[in-house]
Design a protein that fits this description.
The chain is 46% helix and 25% strand. It is α+β, with helices and mostly antiparallel strands and 339 residues long. Helix 5 (117-160) packs across helix 10 (296-307).
């Protein structure tokens, strides 16, 4: 591994050499410097490595390796979380090269693990900062519309109701027409204000906000809805996560209204252990995630999800469109791993 050690000094990567025949992996000192493991001869079994993959990543990683070997692919690149000796997970970018014998059988794999943790943390911080700025902007615009413009229009409505400077025969029509326009403007501004201003979860529960949102849309767009909200301690969920859940639901309902032509919508929120899951279904035209994943709406959902370590899954099943959001609402105890 001497030549690999020289390479690692230039890249700060952890170099590994996997003997597929013996299922053993040899690491350079990067396994100690980056991940904290003090290994005897820096050689381990494949099971040692598998045990340190994040449970949510292990299937994807192994399927990627298996598919590459089956297709005789030489280069593999993937991201996953790897458990350090101190019990913390680090995001890594793993790039590997597969060697085959004369019979096209994979016999060896050489790779380099790059620590992406700092870059991931910076990305999450940037995403959260952008969303915080958006929430502040929404708050300011919402308050401005509600406290100023709305009150001016309401005062104008009262004034128009007292019109007495036009011929008597025109007064009823003018008053009725003005009141209709102003009432519509007030309703539109009020709706916009509610969408822009961040929800205040101190005075109203997340369930009530969800129900109000569904009720307002169902009346306007003529679809029925069902909301299943399992009882749990909402105070244990941060205000930021609740706001992001609301925004994700708003985005999904907007998509349903614009594109799905649905007649019924089902929303459920369930908390089991340290995992909170929100699901939305509709009976509309559905969508194929592979063909729409570059859309702004789904991009907004994904962006909000990533800021709170939320995993989103979008898929089309028959004619039903579903979006599932899983949230880790508390940090579990870190496993104790000895190198």
């Amino acid at each position: 591994m001497e030549r690999y050690d020289i390479l690692a000094k230039a890249t700060s990567d952890t170099i590994w050499d996997w003997n597929l025949g013996h299922n053993t992996i040899l690491y350079n000192p990067g396994i100690t410097d980056t991940f904290g493991y003090d290994l005897d001869k820096n050689e381990v079994t494949l099971n040692w490595w598998l045990e340190r993959l994040h449970p949510e990543d292990i299937n994807t990683v192994m399927e990627s390796f298996s598919e590459a070997i089956e297709k005789r692919t030489e280069n593999i690149q993937q991201e996953y979380r790897f458990l350090c000796a101190n019990g913390e997970y680090k995001f890594v970018l793993d790039r590997a090269y597969v060697l085959y014998d004369q019979h096209k059988n994979a016999v060896r794999m050489i790779g380099a693990m790059q620590d992406l943790s700092y870059a991931k943390e910076e990305e999450n911080r940037m995403t959260k900062a952008i969303m915080d700025a958006q929430e502040r902007e929404r708050r300011e615009i919402g308050l401005e519309l509600h406290d100023n413009v709305n009150q001016i229009l309401a005062g104008t409505l009262l004034s128009l109701g007292m019109i007495n400077r036009v011929p008597a025969e025109q007064t009823p029509w003018l008053v009725e027409k003005s009141m209709t326009y102003i009432n519509e403007a007030i309703q539109e501004i009020r709706t916009l204000s509610h969408q822009l201003a961040p929800a205040n979860f101190n005075d109203i529960s997340l369930e009530e906000i969800f129900r109000d949102l569904l009720e307002s849309l169902s009346v306007q767009k003529e679809f029925t809805y069902s909301l299943h909200f399992a009882r749990f301690h909402e105070a244990a969920i941060s205000n930021d996560i609740q706001i992001n859940l609301l925004r994700i639901l708003q985005e999904q309902l907007n998509n349903i209204v614009k594109y799905a032509q649905a007649t019924s919508v089902y929303v459920s929120v369930v908390c089991e252990g340290n995992r909170l899951t929100m699901r939305t279904y509709d009976d509309g035209s559905g969508f194929c995630y592979a063909t729409v994943k570059k859309g702004i709406g789904l991009a907004n959902i994904k962006k909000r999800a990533e800021a709170d370590i939320i995993k989103t899954i979008q898929e089309k099943i028959s004619a039903d469109a579903k979006v599932k959001v899983n949230i880790k609402v508390e940090t579990p105890e870190k496993p104790e791993i000895k190198g």
